[in-house]
Amino acid sequence: MNTQFFQTRSNEIIESLQITRENSFAGLSRRTDDSKIAAQAAKIERYARVCHHVLLTGERGTGKTTIARQIHDKSSRRKKQFVSLNCATLKEELVEAELFGYEKGAFTGANQMKAGLFEVGSGGTVFLDEVGELSLSLQAKLLKAVEEKRIRRVGASTEIPVDLRIIAATSRNLQAMTRRGEFRADLYDRLNVLSLNTIPLREQKEKIRVLVLTGLEREQIALNRRNSFQIEPSAVALLENYAWTGNFRELQNFVLKLAIEHCDVEIITRADISTLLAEKEITEPGSGDSDGENLAAFAADSHLILE
Questions:
Q1: Residue 195 to residues 69, 147, 189, 191, 216: CA-CA distances in angstroms?
Q2: How far is CA 2 from the centre of its chain?
Q3: Per residue in 223-249, pLDDT tens?
Q4: From CA 95, how far away is CA 87, in angstroms rounded?
Q5: Which of 36, 106, 236, 247 could cross-link 201 (Cys pair, CB 3.0–4.6 Å)?
Q6: Eight-class DSSP state of 24
Q7: What is the Cα–Cα distance from 178 to 169, expressed in whole angstroms?
Q8: What's the pLDDT tens digit per position in 68-94?
């Protein structure tokens, strides 16, 4: 599912989804420091005005790809390409070929020349997700490209100039990795010209209601369901008090499953949510709240009500 799942359209959603009013949401207290969200938005605006490299840090699932795209789309490079690579998903030799490209005959299966992401994204933005997973040898080649703004395709003898703006992201502690010799300190310094630490979902709990409603609306269309999903406010309150250690991505996947499992249900209840969360904890141990509270007890807690 597209990460645009998380764009807020709260007014439209609340009007269209006919929330069951067993309690009013008006009494919900805000548990997010709005200044953090405002500061993050301001950073995105500032970073879009310049072409320096950016390092995005934070927990998995906190929207680093979306933020990278926002920086690009607001920048003077927006007319050129935004290209991305998750460095954790490919073997080392494949990562090198993807980034730098290769010449015909460079290796078995290289039947024609292919430009790498640095070439394709020249003048635009190259987003390197999970950059901390790169091997030290690849880190050295990346450092050379960043410093010299030139790259060499695999199997080539000549170099190609490139206009690079790299936005790198990681869920690991790169500073600790540099101290252990696992990540090059000089590359870290080059990438960390500008930095932004993403905000976990547990610090943006008031967004959960809108995200859930958005997801249910989306799945209603995908499931060809005639009637809008309805959900009890106390069920939403239960979701707001869950830790979501996987952040936005974890919530997104949960809502997808919620809609499918209850596609023929008129109203999604607190009991429905409790059952699904308990099942989730069994299949994904450790995904409960950050204090280590047992999810089964948490889901059964009758005192989690709207204030």
A1: 15, 19, 11, 9, 34
A2: 10
A3: 999 999 999 999 999 999 999 999 999
A4: 7
A5: 247
A6: -
A7: 16
A8: 999 999 999 999 999 999 999 999 999
Contact 139, 183 (CB under 8 A): yes
* pLDDT score of 5: 41
3 state DSSP class of 169: strand
Cα dihedral 175→177→178→184 (10° resolution): -120
Any idea what the Cα angle at residue 202 is, between residues 196 and 207, rounded to 5°? 90
Please name the residue that has the structure tokens 């395709």.
153
Domains and CATH numbers, the chain: 3-32+204-300 (no CATH), 34-197 (3.40.50.300)
- Exposed/middle/buried for residue 80 (C-beta within 10 Å: 0-12, 13-18, 19+): middle
**% of the chain with per-residue pLDDT over 90:** 75
Predicted TM-score (pTM) of the model is 0.78
Q: From the DSSP assignment, how many helices (H) and strands (E) are in the chain?
A: 13, 11
Counting residues of the chain whose pLDDT is more than 70, the rounded percentage is 81
Degrees, nearest 5: CA angle 180-291-200: 65
CA distance 142 to 137: 9
Backbone angles phi, psi at 6, to 5 degrees: -95, 10
Averaged pLDDT of the chain: 85
Helix (H) or strand (E) segment spanning residue 97? helix 92-100
| Exposure class string for 258-286: b at 16+ Cβ within 10 A, else e | bbeebeeeeebbbebbbebbbebbeeeee
**Are the CB atoms for 53 and 194 separated by under 8 Å?**
yes
Distance CA 216, CA 263 (A): 10
Strand pairing class (194-197; 166-170)? unpaired
Helices 233-240 and 270-283 cross at an angle (nearest 10°) of 30
